[in-house]
Every structure is written in structure tokens, then in C-alpha cells.
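pinned: reference chain
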Amino acid sequence: MKIEKDYMGRSNFMLCKLGLLVLALAEASSATLSPTGVNYEVEALAAIKSDLIDPHNVLENWDSNSVDPCSWRMVTCTPDGYVSALGLPSQSLSGILSPAIGNLSNLQSVLLQNNAISGRIPASIGNLVKLQTLDLSNNNFNGDIPDSLGNLKNLNYLRLNNNSLTGPFPKSLSAVGLTLVDLSFNNLSGSLPKISARTFKIVGNPLICGVKAANCSAVFPEPLSFTPDALKESDSGTKRRHMTIILGASFSAVFGVIIIIGLLVWLRYRHNQQIFFDVNDQYDPEVRLGHLRRYTFKELRAATDHFNSKNILGRGGFGIVYKGSLNDGTLVAVKRLKDYNTAGGEIQFQTEVEMISLAVHRNLLRLCGFCSTENERLLVYPFMPNGSVASRLRDHIHGRPALDWARRKRIALGTARGLVYLHEQCDPRIIHRDVKAANILLDEDFEAVVGDFGLAKLLDHRESHVTTAVRGTVGHIAPEYLSTGQSSDKTDVFGFGILLLELITGQKALDFGRVANQKGVMLDWVKKLHQEGKLNLMVDKDLKGKIDRVELEEMVQVALLCTQFNPLYRPKMSEVLKMLEGDGLAEKWEASQKVETPRFRSCEHPRQRYSDFIEESSLVVEAMELSGPR
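pinned: its C-alpha cells
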């Protein structure tokens, strides 16, 4: 009897514990539930979707009956399942922005730039106390800037430029320490606001800039330090620090010299062992630069198993890319930069990284974070499970090519959209300088994602349109870039044309074939076959004739328009995209046939082949491959 009572007592105790556990789990799972029993973040996103006009159905998989929005397009979540980022730039959206956005209380980034959204900016955005980046630029927002934005104490980037906003700038925002504020090209009024920001733009507001005393072209105040602690420290904290330094100076002088000498000896020993001293290991891993995570070198070294050669995804002129697994199991690609120009220093590197991170588009590789130490510069990206276009062109799945014709056409369209964004919609605009199949990555749905954009600028620290060293891959480099070292957006258009030929032929741009009559430069070979009307001979044999003949002819024509030797005759990427979508190709092609490409230099025999430019270029010896297959 006593045994039975003990057993019953233990059973009741275990049931009680189990009940408490179930209750705790139920409470945790209901943390994001609204009173109606629906995930409140799903409700908020559904409300946002219903107030927007979405002509291209980019929000198609935003299902209000879903319990988890983390798999939805353009939505990013934290590891514990809360919506942390909303990225819908350049999606042709109109309508209004729903006040329900204020219910997404864990949002850190809102990117809605380059759409046609109108109406007022919802005051409820002021509820998003974790928000770090707010970009509503290049829309049709009107009315006042909500005073509630002053509640966003973590805000770093505020872009409201190129809208129709009116009224004064909220005084409440003057107390927020921002990195960048862009209010240019609105219709704001009142006095010139005093903003604590590293970069502040207000040009194009006639009611403010019309005042003689207002110098709207200036960027002020003086640049702030990027050190996270420096942005937060108070005056009293500074005074205490100075006092501590003064009191401790006399004692530490002799002791410090001894420590420094010992440290230098230790560092030299460590350096000889090729172990890097990470000056930033003391950084809090949650410290962020804008919406970028700042990783420690130790963290990334562990994620890649000490940069094990087995984890190498690709090699190139920018450095080596490793597959990594973070502590939470997230797979990433870690690019360990080489040939880094340290003259620009830490602030320069962080500035360039920030600018790259602001380029957000579904067809661009998103930068997740970075690591910067005395000896190292690393960039962290999402892992792309299907590798690069170059690596998949020769792959087969169940006896069929991994990239059939439909996927190749979709890759061409996705890449074009990404480049249109970089050239015409991104601020600042970016020239890629190495567009090729190896730099176009493929996500889990084989959607094209343009990688490595902006890195040439990051390494050069020079004007983006002029450089003394040609960065690119021979066979993909535009003739004018080979001849003069000058690049432009038309340089990328040429590279895109070669990419189209890679998709059509399945071959490399240079020394692409092993058959005698194919060995050489692919562009010259394709031009010859096109003139002879033998398009079938250039199509990738792995496709086994399963192609759309009309689309093939159109894609070859677009590729030849993109690879005209004179950059002035090449279309812009926005025009290229329209032609691939079936708009305006016939007119462009007909016009191109009436124009004889002029010579770049006066000479008796104008160069008719791309190989002539390669042979005559004085810069080609410096040309480097920026990145290899992933």
C-alpha cells in the first residue's frame, strides 16, 4: 500500500511537471498569437499585402492562412522565428503602406525603395523600437514625416528622399544618433534641421534650400566614428574614462612598456605559425553596423573549421570562399578577401561595406555581415545551395541537364533585373565589372542571384569609373576596358552579353572548346555562325535540341547587341531587360544593322574580332579573375 502511494505521488508529481511544461510551451507558442488565435505577424503582413497593389505577384506566397511567415518571399526572420526584415525594393508596388506594419515589433530593416507607394508614412512605424534601417526612398509618399520616428533610438539609416513629403522635419529625430539621413528632393519646409548624422542630405527642398543661409549641398556634421561604443557613450562616461587614464598613467608607463615588448614577441611567434591575432574578439557578437552583423574572426574561423580546404567553395581574385556553419546551424558563405588595400583603413572599409549592404534586391546576393581585424577582411553571405551558373552548366540530374532551356532563360531575366537595379535604381549606383556565369549564383529554386557586386570598388579605393588595373576575366572584359582601363555601366552590359552566350552554348568565353574549329574566343565564333545562319551549331549539345527556336534567335540577337565593340551603341540594362521580355528587340536589332561600328583608334585595318582587342591590349596582363566557380 505504501509503495502504491509512493508510486501515485511520484506519478502525480511527474504529471504536474509535464502539465507545467506543456503550459510553458503553449504560452511560448502563443506569444505571437493575436486574440483571434492567428499569428499577429501573419495578420500584419496580410494587412500590408492587402493595401499594396502588386502587379507582378511578388507577394503571391504571402498566405494569410499560414502560421509561419518565415518562408515567405522578401521576409527575413530571426533564429527564434520573428520577422526581422521586410525587403521589397524595386517591385513595381503601389497602393499605400498599412499602419499594421507597426505590429511587426521585431523589425530591424524595412526596404521599400524604388516603388510607387503613396499616402502618408504610418505613424505606427514609431513602434518599431528595434528598427535600424528604414528606406522609403523613390516612392510617392506625401504628408508630414511622423514625429513618432523619434522613438526609433536604434535607427541608423533613414532614407526618405525622392518623395512628396511636406511640413517640417520632426525635432524628435534630432536626438537620434544616425549614420545616414537622406531627405533630398521632397517639399519640406521650416528651418534647416539639426541632425546628429554622419551623412545628411537635404538638397532639392526649395522651401528650405531657398533660404540664403541654408547650404543644402553640404554634408554635416563632421563624420562620426563607426565604433559602436563611441555612438553610445555619454559625456560623463568620457570624463570618467579620461580621469582613469590620468590617474593610472604614471603607474602603467613602465609596466606598459614591458607588456608591449612581450606582446610584440608573442605576436611575431604567432605570426610565424600563421595564426592571426584578432583585435576584435572582444566585440559583442550582437553588435551591428546598420543591419549588418559584425562577426569576430574567431567565430568565422570556427564556422569554417579553421578555413579547412575541404570547405572551399571557390577561388578568385577577391579571395577564397568557404562554406561555414554558424553556432545556430545557419549555413553561410565566408569570403576571405585577399589583396586588401589597407590605405583606406577601417572606416573606409566599413563605409564601402555599408554601401554594398544597402543594395537589396531579390536578384542580388545579400550581405549578412562582415569581420574586420588588423590582418583580415571577411564578408559573410547566405549559402547558395545550387552553386554558380558556371558550376551547374555541365551538371546533370537524373540524366537531364540541371539547367534546361527554361531555367537558362529565367537566369538571364533574373540577372538582368539585378543589374538594372545596380545601374539605375541603387544609391549609390554600382558597376559590377565582372559579370559572368561564375558570379551568378543559384538559390534553392534556381533563381539567379548576382554575387560579388561592389567588391572591385571595395578593393580599389579609387574612382569607380577609372582604374589603372583591369579587374575582370579575359573573355568577358569589354574592348574599351581592355584598351583604356575605363569602365562604365556599358562594361557590365558587354559582360552580360557574354553571359547570354555562356547560357546558350554551355561553353567558356575563352578557349572554350576542345574541337579544333571551336578553340579560341567564343564571341568571334558565335558571330561567324550567326552570319552563316547556323544557330543550331552553337546550342549546348546537352540540351539535345529541347529549346525554343524563337527565344534562341532573340537571345542571340540580344547578346550581339550587348557585345557591340562601341559602348555607345550598346543598350542600357533596362533596355536589355525589356528586349528579353519581348519588347523592342526588332527595332533595336534593325537599327544596329544599319550602323557600322566605328574604330576605337584610327588605323588602317579596324579590328573586327574580339580576339584582336585581347592581343593588342597593354592592360590584359594585369587582368585578373575576380572570382571562380562556387
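why pinned: The mean pLDDT is 75. Residues 40-225 form a domain with the Leucine-rich repeat, LRR (right-handed beta-alpha superhelix) fold (CATH 3.80.10.10).
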